[in-house]
Amino acid sequence: MSTVERRNVWELHRKEEWHPTILWYAKAVGALQAVTNLSDPRSWLHLANIHGTDTPRQQWPAGFTDRTWNACQHGSWYFLPWHRIYLHHFEKIVRKTIVDLQGPADWALPFWNYDPADPETLGLPPEFTDRTGKDGKPNPLFRAGRLAAINQGGRVPASDVELTVRGPNGQRRPWTRRFSSPSTVVPTFGGVQTGWEHEGLANGQLENEPHGMVHNDVGGVTPPFGLMTRFETAAQDPVFWMHHSNVDRLWEVWRNAANDDPLPTSSNWLGARFTFGSGTSLTRLTVGEVLRTTDAPLEYRYTDVPVPVTPVAGPMLAEADDAVGAPEAAADEVPPELVGSVDGVALGASPHEVTIETAAPQAPSLAEAEDGTDEAPTYLALENVTATEPGTHRYTVHVALPAGADRGDHPEREVGRFSTFGVVEATRRDDEHSGAGLTYSFDITPVVAELQAAGEWDPDRLTVTVTPDSGDGGDLQIGRIGVYRG
Ligand code: C2O
After folding, report:
1. What is the pTM of this model?
2. What's the CA-to-centroid distance between 239 and ligand 1, angstroms?
3. Most buried of the four, 13, 247, 267, 382, by CB within 10 Å?
4. pLDDT of 165-189, one tens digit each?
5. Is 93 in the pocket of ligand 1 (CB under 6 A)?
6. Ligand 1 contacts CB of residue 51 (under 6 A)
């Protein structure tokens, strides 16, 4: 097979209603939905259950393990590669189904590029929201299980899909160049270093936004939840796959934006192996095997996105099924130092403010530079955030708001936002996960610098305001809000 091209679903739609790529997707989804034997790796529900399922374990087909279903990797440096392999597996099965239906052999999964510069693309193309398909029958791409407004032509907020990190004065900074870290309090692009991690510890920036934001925007955050809101149902929505095609594309965009390719070289990452499906529909690949999308076995490219050329090489783990290494030993990396914190914060439907007493850092390298000339970053971490229902799409975090001030008047003190997608899952306790929740961390160095320049920086205390943007508030708890240096 030669390389196929994953194309922008809105461009396809604008070329032609029910463009063949979209029409064949619909036909294949219909055919896979008709496969009702859940042991069959081609069944639509089987494919979605790989990501997550509500089906109790006792009812799973014989031989299935928690590496077969409920396997999605979140809040982890495996988030991006795991979903890449998952999409590849899905795309192969869809393409084979299309070929069996006499369709094109070069079909590729489109991507949903929600682009603030092109507002119409913030909604779903009508091929996904019309109840009736091109043939006048029920449309396999339609799902009632979405936020009603989205199915009525509504759009995701442009501010949820900006491809940058929010910072003071509405200035947006590019995503960090750092792909991962052993520490949950260091902001990263790709997620914290973990072992096998279904529920997650700390999201990378891309996983948080636009990824998590769009999940909540399509599924809604109050009951009845749409499919996209929960790990257990998300992949049942045909939109999920186009969304993740875009997330996968954005990973390539980020790689191209870096001067060299800043991917991890550790064998725990490159050698981690994931298995999907079985029999003639088996996909079994390591992270190291999927870093050049135009190479076999992937063989796809995204319209207008160059494929990074940096060769990726590294030692591989021993050949074993689903070999997933432990987190990197951080021998040469000193974790950031906690300089102040407040424990146990409950969030509701209104803004919540806490004041944290902060001390000078103890580490000599940090302490000696306390004259304000030091370059060490300051991080604000919302640690161990848990909830049993999301309740809110997203929270915005400000620091040092003057007493009684309206946060709208102080964009220079906004340090970032986080999506609640995945919090409920990360709160669940099971054999492999402590249920300790997710940590959201923000690099607040630029805000601190602005405050210092304005003579408004108080080295002894920091006020933090966490504000829900929409929804009914949910029941989020923050284990600790910590200020870190280093
Ligand atoms: Cu595994 Cu977008 O979710």
Report:
1. 0.94
2. 11
3. 382
4. 876 766 778 889 999 999 999 999 9
5. no
6. yes
